[in-house]
Amino acid sequence: MTSESEISDWIVNSVKEVREESSETESGRSDTHPGEIISYEPPSQFEAFWINEPVELLLILHSKDEGREDLETIVNGPIKFENFLDRVEKIIQSPRWQQVEPVPSHVQNVSDDYAARGELLAPEFSRVYEMADALLTNQADKGLHISNVVNNTLCIYIYDVSKESIFKSIKGSTNIIKSLENIEMEESDSEEPTGSGTYIYPPVWVGSVPEMSFSEKVLQGPDNFAETVIERSIGGNKLSVQKDGFIYVDIGDSEKAIDMFNCIFAAGLFKGEVMDSVKAGGVTGTRDPESEHERFGIFSQLRKDLTPSNSPAPLSQRADPPRRGIINKDDMDSIISLAEDIYKNDEEKEKASFLLQAYTHHRNNEFSQSYLFSWILIENHINHSLRSHLKDAREMSNSRVRKVIDSSNWGASNKIELAEIIGHIDKSKYSKLNGFRKKRNKLVHNMTEVDKKDSTEILNAAFEMLYNDDVTPEDESNQIPGL
Fold first, then answer.
1. Can you point out the beta strands (E) in 159-202?
2. Taking the mean position of all CA atoms in its chain, how far away is CA 121?
3. Which of 25, 69, 147, 396 could bridge to 390 as Cys pair (CB 3.0-4.6 Å)?
């Protein structure tokens, strides 16, 4: 019958044998550093969790802690499966498990930047349950072992607890270690990002839908998703658009890149396309897609939505990913041309940004936020329109106009009254603008919520104002798309 001491000896002897083989094949190697999982070199510690009833399996955790002895090996077990969770919960309270580590970006169930090692490894213990279920239902291949890495801990799962299986698993895990080392070397040698990238959202195909064979559909898509369909300059910067809606611009500063992207998406609204604004979390530093085969670091809302497996909800409860629309290549090129014109004019760029934010908030059912952004545009337009009328139609001097337009002298209510008195707006527009103003005041001063109908009405008015330089929408074809 297997014992804890036997398992401990099998682990230690396997590591020693792997070290000997490694030293023979990699003599002269000097790039191993303590504390990095790139080999089983000292210091290496091992902790095993051994379940023996009603099925037998073993989880070995390999760490490289400077303050602990080399080849320190702890075997927890034998443990009955029904007692596994209680036993683990007690064990991870020990100091070695409370060591604080940075939280990897892929870990979704930890909100802080740092967490205890035991908390970070909770999903690995969860996998033990999956493995036990596979054994109980005869769906596990006992000839296989599984390895995974979480931060500085290598996790080895073994179905068949024996001397041979432990050696085979530890030796086999060196392939993962070497691949990690290669990734680290590639990342250290890689060039710094030269530009920024994001996706059009909601998701679209630009040009046409890629043709996919059956095997490509099974494997989640063809290689030509990243095909460049538009390549041009905008504001003196290189820009490219790819078939899957990924946009690259040769601007390394993320804030400036966001300005550029949002000019494009606002221009899309004016051209009748549904496009949301992008924020810092939806933009990544990257290199020119034409100079690399793989885009990296894309953490956009689109990527999250198109990967429903990232959701913790059961499959039956997950929302379907958005269906991709199609934007004609010439239409996309026209959108970029309009965006370039907007980008050159700071005042137009600011107004387009406010409109896009109002629109995005509305689509996210954030109606109060949307209303406030729309009202800012309405009030700005009242100022601009009244200033032009007083100067041109009334031939007033600039100093007199400033006295009327300056918000410290006149509020929005006074300006709307004046506009109606001098005949600049009719009774209908006067009533509509006053209605917008009163609801804005209730929202700001009384915290009265705004509903979808109110948000839609003022958003359409703001859109029409920018679209046709008119305060209220008369032609429904010019209303903002997708509401």
1. 195-199
2. 23
3. 396
Please name the residues in contact with 157: beta carbons below 8 A apart, sequence gap of 6 or more: 57, 58, 59, 127, 128, 131, 145, 146, 147, 148
Give residue 221's identity as a one-letter amino acid code: G
The span from the CA of 469 to the CA of 466, in Å, is 5
In three-state secondary structure terms, 123 is helix
378-394 pLDDT, tens digit per residue, is 998 888 888 887 877 77
- Which of 458, 455, 456, 461 minimizes the C-alpha distance to 474? 461
Which residues, 6 or more positions from 76, have their beta carbon under 8 angstroms from its beta carbon? 47, 48, 49, 50, 87, 88, 91
Q: Which two tokens stand for residue 189?
A: 């040698």
Q: How many CB atoms lie within 10 A of CB 345?
A: 11
**Distance (Å, rounded) from C-alpha 258 to C-alpha 255?**
5
The 72-80 sheet, strands edge to edge: 72-80, 45-53, 57-63, 153-158, 145-150
CA 170 to chain centre: 35
The residue among 15, 82, 16, 84 whose CA lies nearest residue 49 is: 84
pLDDT in tens, 327-357: 999 999 999 999 999 999 998 999 999 999 9
Which residue's entry shows tokens 């359409």? 460
Q: How many CA atoms lie within 13 A of 238 on its CB side?
A: 11
Q: What is the mean pLDDT of the chain?
A: 78
Sheet holding 195-199, edge to edge: 228-234, 237-242, 246-249, 195-199, 284-286
Residue closest to 203 by CA, chosen among 297, 302, 106: 302
Burial (CB count within 10 angstroms: exposed 0-12, middle 13-18, buried 19+), residue 218: exposed
Q: How far apart are CA 40 and CA 60, in angstroms?
A: 13
- Tokens at residue 19, please? 């070290």
- What's the rounded Cα separation, in Å, for the pair 158 and 151? 20
Amino acid at 103: V
Residue 46: phi and psi, rounded to 5, are -135, 135
Tokens of 43: 């210091």
- Is residue 399 exposed (0-12), middle (13-18) or buried (19+ Cβ within 10 Å)? exposed
Above 50 in pLDDT, residue 483? yes
| Tally: H helices and E strands in the chain | 15, 14
Q: How many angstroms separate the first and last alpha carbons of the chain?
A: 70
Query: Which pLDDT value is given to residue 440?
Result: 93
What CA–CA distances, in Å, run from 273 to 187, 259, 322, 328, 334?
38, 18, 15, 11, 12
The DSSP line for 291-322 is: G-S-------HHHHHT-GGG-SS-GGGSPPPP
Crossing angle between the packed helical segments 367-392 and 452-468, to the nearest 10 degrees: 30
